[in-house]
Amino acid sequence: MTLRATQALSLLAIDPAGLKGLWLRARAGPVRDAFMAALALPLPTRRLHPNIADDALFGGIDLAATLAAGRTIHTHGILQTPAALILTMAERCTPGLAARLATALDTPAHCLIALDEGTEDEALPAALADRLALFLDLSDVVWSTDDPVTLDNQTLDNARGLLPRVTVPKDAAAALTRAASELGIASLRAPTLALAAARAAAAWRGSDTVTDADLMLAAELVYGHRAIPLPETSPQPPDAEPPPPDDSDGKTDSQNQTDIPEDILIAAARAALPPDLLAALNAGRAAQAAKGASGTGGAKSGNRRGRPLPSRAGRLGTGARIDLVATLRAAAPWQPMRRAAALRDATLHIRPADIRLKRYIETSDRVLIFAVDASGSAAFARLSEAKGAVELLLAAAYARRDHVSLIAFRGTG
What is the pTM of this model? Predict the structure, then answer.
């Protein structure tokens, strides 16, 4: 694992904008801390959490400073300057935040380190997993038995300077694309990221040309966690006829081409990770997809409607609603001290730390559809049964904010 971690960190340090980032699955502890300490990215780091607000990402209005200065004061957003974004508890990233970060990664400015602390049935959102080139799993790494990861900063600086001059063989992109297809990878971002990894690997070696070894390393690092487990196939009967020989003369243009077979790239990608990891990642993706598409009316937090929850401290942002009573209650004990220290008289002194925001928990909407076949002699009975079921659901549907629909069809109508 030390070798794999060194390779991944080195390639990411050479071309962070091209590789987009790293999906790191590891529990919080000394192993992950040592790995993060070895990061040598040329970008400033910015830490994010799954519930970060839009004004912190894109900038907004600083209400306290605006009221104090008498003019509009804007805050600086994290995404306004190129940075290495470190997302903690990435398995809890909301779909909205995943979409915003994915849009930021589509521009060649940022890279993302997604720290995944989830269990087997939790995974990184698909929008981010598709855009991050590299993946490492440190769950089974023991601190006392593994060597520390160290990088050569001088080698990385030389590789960054050499990277723009690295050339790629003409058929390398096609070979990586066909290998991705054989591994069951449908996204076209994977070959693009693998090509960027191969260029970074060549620059890391100090070469200006991508070789077969660079392509194999790129396939291992980029395709390993994306591959879909192979289905069980029945053995081919022994009397099967071999395919007819190829009648072509075998003449190819060997200049600026790679002769590495695609099956070697596929084997390298599958051998990069433990065999049970692919199944675990695939199960996590399936569980997450089922969770997001179940339509079961799951509970979600909000600040507009639903069952009220205790208010919490927070900053004013887009869509936030102030709990006025709770804010005044938090500010009341400090009024004598603030009046004595204030330079000007004021009836009430409110500080940003006093702001309390309203919270609610609501159940997402659900649609229940009854589709009834109205053709045939028994149509009347079927319609009566469906209407009776709809009437029984209406009371519960009102309480849960569900929608009930009855659709009768006959023929083409």
Answer: 0.62
